[in-house]
Amino acid sequence: MDIREDHLRVLSLFTRGYDREVYIREAARLLPISRGTAQTALEYLEAKQVLRSATRGRTRLFSLRRGDHARDFCTLAEVYRRICFGEEEPFIAGVLSRIIPLIEGGGAVFGSHAEGTADEESDLDLFVAGECRVEEVERIGKTYGIKIHLTVYPREVFDRDLHTDPFLREVLRNHVLIKDTERFVEKAVG
What we know:
The protein is α+β, with helices and mostly antiparallel strands. 53% of the residues lie in helices and 22% in strands. The strands form 2 sheets. It has a 4-stranded mixed sheet with strand order 6-5-4-7. Strands 1-3-2 form a 3-stranded antiparallel sheet. The protein is globular and about 55 Å long. The mean pLDDT is 96.
């Protein structure tokens, strides 16, 4: 298997909602990479049965396939995104390393930190599917001088409503997974 960073970057576009269609120029513009690099990566992922394409008019649109193989590749892309997030935001990654053991279930950063638009005034938006020791998370936030906005859903609500609840759909579109990545991807991809 020859997975390169360009493949993971392109695949990460599809993990933003898991229902997205992307055309070659759009991938090139969003990442930014050359059009040729985007096309090569999209076609590689299609040949690996992770993506499928359809032509509408003169535009070739790529979308995520469903199933185990796509799920495994998406899990790699999510882990890649978490690694990049840690490199871009080492302070927040350090705070998260203290919070993760307090989560029983899945966890994700969403909001401005996940979008890459956070500034010094931004709070840290965390989503938990399961249970979390809220008081301890708040204490960690105070210790590090960062306001933490925590949203906790029971796992069964997350499982049932992931694709229909407006808040969960927003988390699905804009997230960095910090815990239970495989389960999140399984529910997102199906």
